[in-house]
Specification:
α2 crosses α6, α3 runs antiparallel to α4 and α3 runs antiparallel to α7. By secondary structure, this protein is α+β, with helices and mostly antiparallel strands. It contains seven helices and five strands. It has a domain of about 100 residues: NADH Oxidase (3-Layer(aba) Sandwich). Bound molecules: flavin mononucleotide. The site of flavin mononucleotide has 9 residues, from β4.
Length: about 200
């Protein structure tokens, strides 16, 4: 499928701020899809390259790009899941951990967004927030492309052996696995917070 994504601007190009009603309409109604509902087809290699380019356009204090991507798909994703199954077998609640792997095994494509903070002037907290923004943008971009998508962490984002199996270096953290695919079931609206009830206006 081709998507009408404009070419990335060149450094220094003027990028006028203009209304984007389509984006507002998308934000008003978008939903994550259950990872267990995601089947073939997933984004193609070309589409994935576009999605990652879009996801990397997030606010990033200090221009550090304090994150990276690990693509999980096909036989290699199945092999990663099989390694996790072996690790899960060593845990007391192994069957529960194995059951959770369905969200990794079912979708055709996953991307681990890996946060890697660097020491320096920019607080680590801000670098982690930027990694979260990458996850959100990837989730939204995949949805805008017409794919169901879900942001998952789960036990294998935290388990030391699972992290090693994924190939994380010391100091790296999984900000999220963003799974993508085609969903036959339209997600239903969930309970939403009342933004007004969460808002105060600071007064002197
Ligand atoms: C940091 C983070 C971690 C999440 N981890 C999980 C998870 O482990 N398992 C899960 O089923 N959903 C997980 N979710 C997804 C949410 O539970 C749920 O899909 C999402 O909030 C749906 O909201 P939406 O439809 O507004 O996108 C996670 C979401 C976030 C932001």
């Amino acid at each position: 499928m081709t998507h009408d994504i404009p070419a990335a601007p060149a450094f220094g190009d003027a990028l006028p701020v203009s209304p984007a009603p389509g984006v507002l309409a998308f934000l008003a109604r978008r939903r994550s899809a259950s990872a267990l509902s995601l089947g073939a087809r997933g984004p193609s290699d070309e589409e994935l390259a576009d999605l990652l380019t879009l996801a990397a356009r997030v606010p990033d204090h200090g221009k550090l790009a304090p994150w990276r991507f690990i693509v999980l798909r096909g036989e290699d994703k199945a092999a990663f899941a099989a390694r996790l199954e072996v690790l899960a077998a060593d845990h007391a609640d192994g069957p529960k951990l194995v059951a959770k792997l369905g969200k990794l095994k079912t979708p055709p494509l996953g991307v681990a967004v890996v946060s890697r903070t660097v020491d320096g002037e920019i607080p680590a907290w801000e670098q982690l927030l930027s990694a979260g923004a990458v996850c959100t943008t990837l989730l939204y971009a995949a949805t805008a492309m017409g794919y169901g998508a879900n942001w998952i962490t789960d036990w294998y984002a935290y388990d030391p052996q699972a992290r090693a199996a994924l190939g994380l270096d010391e100091g790296e953290q999984v900000a999220g696995f963003v799974f993508m695919g085609t969903t036959a079931e339209p997600p239903q609206e969930r309970v939403r917070p009342d933004a007004a009830a969460l808002t105060t206006v600071w007064k002197d």
